[in-house]
Write a structure and sequence with these properties.
Elements: H1 2-13, H2 16-35, H3 39-68, H4 70-77, H5 83-113, H6 121-148, H7 152-180, H8 187-195, H9 198-209, H10 218-227, H11 230-257
């Protein structure tokens, strides 16, 4: 698996899309720092971009890499190599290269601007960690979708639909539910619903870390009461790890049963 990981990682690092991805975040960080003299405001603005864009790019890259390397994968399957090692190695190569481009691309301009001497270092670190976890999650989900759909068009369609649902539609359904059932106690419902969506969970954690949970209104008080505690932070971190672990288990299970 290590050899496949290295091959996938180096293959992607030589790809022009990896350089485009890296340069995009590098320029984004430079522009935000140029427009905002306050590092805290730049981090808040960056959060709105990261939470939506990182899952989309992870999903597209994951599906695209699987379909583009399908012939090479079939060649590997003919060798005495475990199927799980092949696909998990490819997944790690893709996700780690994307996460590294994100962290380095955003980290360089903020480091030169003096983030280590700023009070915003904690918020910025959490933002990068959350972005890396979202990359791992949505790249894994993309591999699951691609493995279950041999048709490339269907695979891309389902992947985009998944991102659209978790990034946009899910929040609309959640808000409509809060309005419709406003006469009922919704504390537990709000917490559970948030933890079932990695994008919402990441957004809430970052907002609470930045101490601007008041922007969330009533739900902000509920989230602050739960996620602001040590238990809430541990549970939310475990949920994000679980969001990575379940797709990885599905990749191993589907690849072991799939007829190539």
């Amino acid at each position: 698996m290590i050899k496949i990981l290295k091959y996938s990682f180096y293959d992607l690092m030589r790809s022009r899309w990896s350089y485009v991805y890296f340069l995009f975040y590098l320029l984004l960080g430079l522009v935000l720092l140029f427009l905002n003299n306050d590092l805290s405001k730049a981090v808040i603005t960056l959060m709105n971009v990261i939470i939506i864009l990182v899952p989309l790019i992870g999903t597209i890259f994951g599906v695209m890499y699987y379909y583009n390397s399908k012939e090479f994968t079939e060649l590997l399957l003919a060798q005495p190599v475990k199927r799980s090692s092949i696909f998990l190695g490819q997944y790690l190569g893709v996700s780690l290269s994307l996460a590294m481009s994100l962290v380095i691309g955003l980290g360089l301009p903020f480091i030169f601007y003096g983030i280590f001497n700023s009070d915003a270092i904690g918020n910025f670190s959490l933002l990068l960690i959350t972005g890396a976890l979202l990359t791992l999650i949505f790249t894994a989900l993309a591999f699951v979708i691609a493995l279950t759909n041999d048709n490339k068009i269907k695979g891309f369609g389902y992947a985009i639909l998944l991102w659209l649902f978790l990034a946009v539609i899910y929040d609309g359904i959640f808000l409509m539910s809060l309005v419709f059932f406003e006469d009922y106690p919704l504390d537990k419902f709000s917490l559970i619903t948030t933890m079932l969506n990695p994008i919402d969970l990441s957004r809430v954690l970052i907002l609470l870390k930045m101490d601007i949970s008041a922007l969330l209104g009533y739900t902000g008080a509920v989230f602050q009461k739960f996620f602001g505690t040590n238990l809430g932070i541990i549970l939310s971190s475990l949920m994000l790890i679980l969001w990575v672990s379940i797709p990885l288990f599905l990749i191993k299970r589907i690849s072991g049963r799939k007829d190539f």
